[in-house]
Specification:
mainly alpha; 0% strand
Length: 172
């Protein structure tokens, strides 16, 4: 009887260890998979956060530089109309730089942004001069409608509030 008991223990013992190892391995793999998913989500949120912040900064700069360029062009026109000999060239390089950076920010938004963010970008861009392509004779530099720009900007911020925090506030 003792031999049968010893043989039973000898067979069941390793089988139990093997079963325990398999179960532990399964839970370890499952935990690693979950951690990988969470890490990717955090990395994606961080990338979107940087992309969205750069986009809004570029949009604001483009709006400001558009206003500055319009003021400078008016000043130049007034100087030319007065026929002053000290008329200087119009300085609107800040506008062109802001236009270039804004288009770059849009490009990154299309790669890393959500569909909601891309749609919100369209609302902001509708308040600004076109930023894509060469400026030709038919290019129109128009005043930025501040209230429309602010409303579109705020809508984009609301999307950021919903998408970026791991646990968004209910009022987002």
């Amino acid at each position: 009887m003792e031999i049968i008991l010893a043989l039973t223990v000898a067979i069941i013992g390793p089988a139990g260890v093997l079963a325990g190892t398999i179960v532990a391995g399964h839970f370890t793999t499952e935990t690693q998979d979950q951690r990988f998913i969470e890490d990717r989500e955090a990395e994606s949120r961080a990338k979107r956060e940087r992309t969205y912040e750069k986009y809004l900064r570029a949009a604001n700069s483009y709006a400001v530089e558009t206003t500055n360029a319009l003021d400078e062009l008016k000043r130049c026109a007034d100087d030319q109309a007065s026929s002053r000999p000290e008329v200087e060239a119009c300085e609107i390089a800040g506008f062109f730089s802001a236009r270039y950076l804004y288009q770059g920010a849009i490009n990154n938004l299309y790669v890393y942004g959500s569909q909601d963010a891309i749609e919100a970008e369209g609302a902001i861009s509708a308040t600004l001069p076109s930023s894509l392509g060469a400026i030709s004779g038919d290019f129109k530099l128009a005043k930025v409608n501040d209230s429309d720009f602010r409303a579109a900007y705020q809508s984009f911020l609301s999307i950021m509030c919903r998408e970026l925090p791991p646990d968004p506030r209910p009022e987002c």
